[in-house]
Amino acid sequence: MENSSSASDLKSDALKVGNGSEFKVHVFSSSSELIEKLHEKWSSVKKQPYPAMYSSIFGGIILDPAMMVIPIDDHMVHRGHGVFDTAVIVDGYLYELDVHLDRFLRSASKAKISSPFPRSALRSILVQLSAASQCKKGTLRYWLSTGPGDFLLSPTACPTSAFYAVVIDDDFPQCKEGVKVITSTVPMKSPEFATMKNVNYLPNVLAKMEAEEQGASASIWLDEEGYIAEGPNVNVAFINHDKELLLPSFDKILTGCTVKRLMELVPKLVDQGRLKGMRTANLTVEEAKGAAEMMFVGSTLPILPIIMWDEQPIGNGKVGELTMELSNLLWEDMVAGPETQRIPVPYV
What we know:
31% of the residues lie in helices and 22% in strands. By secondary structure, the chain is of the alpha+beta class. 36% of the residues are buried.
């Protein structure tokens, strides 16, 4: 059997297309030839970024990155009928897996997706996957889909739902540098969909790209009444000049697991007299931009200081002391928190 087209052959074919010449598409004559081509992609990668994946379609854990695929007729692919969630691996521990898993199943219920496994089995799969990956620091992402079956809207012909998960090797550091943000012009999702962690992230992607095109890190969404909502995939928080931690109300946005944990830890700073208190509220743009400090809150950050919004400095335009104290609180919880927050990964 002849080898599949080389990279130079494919480049040559692409040039022919660009020149308007006839383009001949290669037909893979066997599965072994296709697998060889898939392996070519990964042969030059020095470090595998995805050390392990689980697929209920395959019925096990996959260590070969070339085989980390999902069916094209999965309704999550062509209809966006799926939900997902995440957790982080820090120093060999899964941080806040249980609260993320609970939110994951609430999202699935809202999306009318039934799990192929009970919660206990899903949790066990994720822990075993983390162990098989040998990853000591990274992220764990997982999805529930109505599964493969056809290309129609309704999932009634799908024989079973599908569960996928992947470990991403990522040595994320604590964020200590401030970033710039803009107010997004991309419409945010309606509350029904914003409070459900589904895979329809096109508005989020466009909001992020809009910010990057303007030299900013990310964007801030406002709700239909003009109040502060959230970032593209993170919560946003403020500290006013009275040293109160202010959080936008959660009734129209996704309730972040990390920001919920932050709210549980904040009383430590209140007891020390560093913060006056904490509250959620409908925050106007004027009130938010007039804050002394501003930050994003999310799983892998866990706190990202914001120093400028729409070219206007936040406070003195520098990373705030209280922002970093909140960051330290969360970071310490991630690396040395209680057993209720950290699950040891049983590496072999």
